Amino acid sequence: MSRSASPSRRTAVTPESSGAASPAAGQPSDSVAIVVILPVKAEARDRFRKMLFAVVEAMVKEPDFVNTWVHEDLNDPDTLVLYETWACSSEHLLEHHLKKPYRQAYEAALPEMLKAERRIVFLKPAMAVYPKQRA
Hints:
There is one protein chain. This protein is of the alpha+beta class. The protein has one domain: Alpha-Beta Plaits. The chain contains four helices and five strands, in the order βαβαββααβ. A five-stranded antiparallel beta sheet has the order 1-5-2-4-3. The model is unreliable at about 1-30 (pLDDT under 50).
């Protein structure tokens, strides 16, 4: 279940067109985790990070936002990988949060800043493990 948005053209984002499925039977529809893979052009690195970090700072204020981690690929510092958790359905995330005004400039600039397609992978829980509290 992944979605790619071409950096050379804007495409409509829907679970149906992206291959992302609606939550499976028995899966909570009020939470979603995603991984976003962003291969950035080297010459756009600083601009991209500034814009991305501004979007992340705005996301934190959303009532459905749970958390996010922004990672840098160890083998390619120009590829960033985000892990996000939201307290909403995948449909609500696509239709509501990805269309917020604070994302407009970032989304419009992606085609010129990315060297390959952005990939968004929707996840469902398979197992959760938490470390024991340490003394």
